[in-house]
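User: Design a sequence. Structure:
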C-alpha cells in the first residue's frame, strides 16, 4: 500500500542502459537525458571516493585525468562490469530526470540485451533498486528496438530488427507481441572502435585512443567502397619513435579495419534467418529488415547487409533513439509492459 501511495507522487522512468550511452525517458515527457555511460570518480588520500562528473562531462575526461581521478565506463558488452559505479550512475540519472533528490521512488523499466544470465539480470535490477527505484521491470533490447522503430509487434506478421549498439548487436524476429527468434553477439560499436585502433597501430605505427577511433568510424567509416574516398588527418603517438605525429587516413582504411566486425554481424543475421520458421520468413521477405542503433548510421551498412542476405534492409527513423523510444512506449502502454517486461 505504501508503495502505491508513493507511486502517485513519482514520475515513472524508462532507461536504455547502454554500454556507450544511457537514455532516460520520463513518463509523459519523452527523452530528458541522453549522455555517455561514463562516471568520473575522485579519490582522496584515504581512498574515499566521490562522483566528480557523470555523462558527457565525465567522457570528456577519459584519458586526461590525474592519478586521483578515474573516468570509468561501468557497462561492458551490454552488462554491468562495475556494480557500484553503475548504481551511482543510475542514481544520478534518476535524480537529474526528476530534477530533485526525491523521497518518492519511481517505477523503472530498463532495456537489457537478449540472452543475459539470471545473475546479470539480477545485477541490473539490484542496481536500479539500490539507486531508488520502487519497481524494476526489464525488457529485451530487440523488442524495444522493434517497438521504437514503429514495427507493429503485436501483429501476427514476422518482422526482423537488427540493433547495433555500443556493446552488443541484438537481432530479433517479432510476431504476436513476442520474440520468436533472437540472437545477441558482443560485436558492435566498441568492438569496431578497437578494430580501428589496432588497424592504425599495425599499419601506421600510430597509437590512438578510443575517442579518436570512434570519431574515425563516425566521420569516414564505411561498410562498402565509396565512389569518392573520404579523408581526415589523425594525430597520435608514433609507437616506434615515441614522438607525436599526424597522418592522413582514408575511408578505405577504415573499411578494411571494420571488415571483420561487419562480417560477424552479417553472419549472425544469416544464422538467425536460417532458424526463422518458414511462415515468418515469408513475412520478412516482404517487410524487409530494419536497422537501429548507432551502428545503423555506418555508411553503406544497409546495402552491405542487403547484398549478403538478399533482402531489403531499411534504416529506422532516428535509429539512435529507437531502443529508448521503444522502452518508453512499453512504459506508457501497460498491456505491452505486462507482455514484454518482466520481473525476476
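Assistant: Done.
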Amino acid at each position: 500500500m505504501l508503495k502505491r501511495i508513493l507511486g502517485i507522487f513519482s514520475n515513472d522512468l524508462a532507461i536504455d542502459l547502454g554500454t556507450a550511452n544511457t537514455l532516460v525517458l520520463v513518463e509523459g515527457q519523452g527523452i530528458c537525458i541522453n549522455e555517455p555511460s561514463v562516471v568520473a570518480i575522485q579519490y582522496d588520500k584515504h581512498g574515499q571516493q566521490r562522483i566528480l562528473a557523470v555523462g558527457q562531462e565525465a567522457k570528456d575526461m577519459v584519458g586526461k585525468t590525474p592519478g586521483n581521478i578515474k573516468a570509468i565506463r561501468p557497462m561492458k558488452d551490454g552488462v554491468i562490469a562495475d556494480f557500484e559505479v553503475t548504481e551511482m550512475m543510475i542514481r544520478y540519472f534518476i535524480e537529474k530526470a526528476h530534477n530533485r533528490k526525491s523521497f518518492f521512488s519511481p517505477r523503472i523499466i530498463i532495456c537489457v540485451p537478449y540472452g543475459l544470465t539470471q545473475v546479470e539480470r539480477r545485477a541490473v535490477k539490484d542496481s536500479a533498486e539500490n539507486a531508488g527505484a520502487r519497481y524494476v521491470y526489464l525488457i529485451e533490447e530487440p523488442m524495444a528496438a522493434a517497438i521504437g522503430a514503429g514495427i507493429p509487434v503485436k501483429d501476427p506478421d514476422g518482422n526482423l530488427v537488427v540493433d547495433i549498439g555500443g556493446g552488443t548487436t541484438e537481432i530479433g524476429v517479432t510476431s504476436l507481441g513476442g520474440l520468436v527468434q533472437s540472437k545477441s553477439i558482443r560485436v558492435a560499436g566498441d568492438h569496431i572502435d578497437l578494430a580501428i585502433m589496432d588497424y592504425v597501430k599495425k599499419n601506421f605505427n600510430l597509437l590512438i585512443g578510443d575517442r579518436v577511433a570512434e570519431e574515425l568510424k563516425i566521420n569516414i567509416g564505411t561498410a562498402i567502397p565509396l565512389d569518392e574516398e573520404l579523408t581526415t588527418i589523425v594525430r597520435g603517438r608514433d609507437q616506434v619513435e615515441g614522438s607525436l605525429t599526424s597522418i592522413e587516413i582514408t575511408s578505405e582504411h577504415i573499411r578494411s579495419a571494420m571488415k571483420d566486425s561487419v562480417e560477424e554481424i552479417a553472419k549472425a543475421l544469416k544464422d538467425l534467418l536460417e532458424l526463422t520458421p518458414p511462415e515468418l520468413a515469408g513475412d520478412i521477405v516482404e517487410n524487409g529488415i530494419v536497422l537501429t542503433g548507432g551502428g545503423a548510421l555506418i555508411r553503406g551498412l544497409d546495402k552491405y547487409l542487403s547484398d549478403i542476405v538478399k533482402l531489403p534492409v531499411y534504416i529506422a527513423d532516428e535509429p539512435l533513439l529507437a531502443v529508448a523510444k521503444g522502452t518508453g512506449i512499453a512504459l506508457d502502454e501497460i498491456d505491452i509492459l505486462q507482455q514484454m517486461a518482466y520481473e525476476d
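The chain has four domains: 2-36+77-143+323-342, 38-72, 155-187+259-319, 189-257. The chain has twelve helices and 19 strands.
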